[in-house]
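User: Second chain of the day. Same drill as before.
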Amino acid sequence: MLIPSIDLKGGAVVQLVQGERLAIKDDDVFAWVRRFETFPKVQVIDLDATMGSGDNLGLVRRIAGALACRVGGGIRTVERAQDVLAAGARQIIAGSSLFKNGVPDLAFAKTLSDAVGRDRVIAAVDSRGGRVVIHGWKTVLPLTAVEAVNALEPFCDEFLYTHVDTEGLMGGTNFDAIRAVRAATTRRVTAAGGISTQKEIDDLDALGVDSVVGMAIYTGALDPKAPGKG
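Assistant: Same format as last time:
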């Protein structure tokens, strides 16, 4: 399944290359909300909250009320998770908050899971150079994605694996890395990072992996149709 991504920064929809260089900016956020409204799943990420440079919470709440979405970015407390879920988000995506002192923070993971329900928690495990990265991909941890997945599996219903090495480059993703994550867990797995063709989406679907796509949609390289829309 293809899951379109809405990444928010400064009140606009953006696409960043490698999480840093601005490639696309569109102030008409709700044009994209309307385009994606028939998709069964949409991913909404508050990049300002992720990077600790502010937040787009008011906008996130409005989008969560309009789309069947999972919301990430700045989900560092139970209260923030409950806020976006109350606004209408189906699931929350927690990333950096699931790690502490270089290892998975199992105490917080359990607290979050118990508070909102494991079925509504997606654990984001982002990898660059073979190691987990957090804090907007700036901090490298001494563990692999598979190690993180093994530790966090009891506390989430799904993993979002982002292969940062290929993120935003439109050059394809890393199937070997995704297969390793898929093999490491019985939970649902969604992959992101460079996915840019329908063939990749179909091949990942055959592995039982959903695909988050951003840059390919916003550049027009991929024109996805919602299921049932032809």
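Residues 2-218 form a domain with the TIM Barrel fold (CATH 3.20.20.70).

User: Great, on to the next one.
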